[in-house]
């Protein structure tokens, strides 16, 4: 149920405990309003002190992820964090697995570069600061369904481009959480239609010229810091999008 706590990690132990709990909250392992492990359970399973577990739980309460019920324990708030449109808080890989589909990807680009002006603006970076640029062809059950291009501030995840992105089911959000303690908490989404370039149309197995849906998302962490900018081109038939709306 838990990923191991590493005492060699530069992240403080309590932040690693927070990350493990957030993984359960937003990875579908704890339902909305569900009970989270107690201090004692965290101590026993993760091998941390009670003070460390308590600090992690208190911060998650302060940040709105959990609510404390005296005498009962800690519970997921179940509020708007779980309702962000287009699965902003869950990766392509995690979403596919949750729907019993087989995710896949083919790396098109993984490199470090100076952020272009629009990228720097979206990520609130100064001109000339560097980012990791990660571009992948996304697959569902072996079929190409989207082209995703991510930019992550290099200072937040310095060796991200060095990972093997051809490993099956490697999730960017899981890497950001587990390696760097970066957990998406909210964000912004913009939808628009565009004409795919001949290269992109060929990757998606569309006849050019082809109209595709473009989704641009910026994910923020719990302190409002941009941690990822994503631009995704969606195959209009193989990967339609759905927005759930309340009544």
TrEMBL record:
It comes from the Bacteria. Keywords: DNA-binding, Transcription, Transcription regulation. GO terms for molecular function: DNA binding; DNA-binding transcription factor activity. InterPro entries: Bact_HTH_transcr_reg, Chorismate_lyase_/UTRA_dom_sf, Tscrpt_reg_HTH_GntR, UTRA, WH-like_DNA-bd_sf, WH_DNA-bd_sf. Residues 11-79 form the HTH gntR-type domain. One of its GO terms (biological process) is negative regulation of DNA-templated transcription. This is HTH-type transcriptional repressor YvoA. The gene is yvoA_1.
């Amino acid at each position: 149920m838990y990923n191991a706590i590493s005492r060699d990690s530069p992240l403080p132990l309590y932040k690693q405990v927070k990350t493990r709990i957030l993984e359960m909250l937003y990875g579908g392992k704890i339902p909305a309003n569900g009970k989270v492990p107690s201090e004692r359970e965290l101590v026993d399973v993760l091998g941390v002190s009670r003070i460390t577990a308590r600090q992690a739980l208190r911060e998650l309460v302060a940040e709105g992820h959990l609510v404390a019920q005296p005498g009962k324990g800690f519970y997921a708030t179940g509020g708007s964090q779980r309702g962000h449109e287009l699965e902003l808080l869950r990766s392509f890989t995690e979403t596919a697995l949750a729907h019993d589909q087989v995710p896949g990807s083919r790396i098109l680009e993984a490199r470090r570069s100076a952020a272009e002006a629009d990228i720097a603006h979206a990520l609130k970076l100064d001109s000339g600061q560097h980012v990791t640029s990660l571009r992948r062809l996304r697959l569902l059950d072996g079929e190409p369904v989207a082209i995703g291009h991510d930019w992550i501030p290099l200072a937040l995840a310095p060796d991200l481009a060095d990972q093997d992105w051809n490993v099956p089911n490697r999730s960017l959000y899981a890497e950001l959480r587990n390696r760097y303690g970066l957990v998406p908490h909210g964000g912004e989404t913009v939808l628009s239609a565009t004409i795919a370039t001949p290269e992109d149309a060929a990757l998606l197995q569309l006849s050019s010229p082809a109209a595709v849906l473009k989704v641009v998302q910026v994910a923020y962490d719990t302190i409002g810091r941009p941690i990822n900018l994503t631009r995704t081109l969606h195959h209009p038939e193989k990967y339609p999008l759905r927005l759930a709306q309340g009544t």
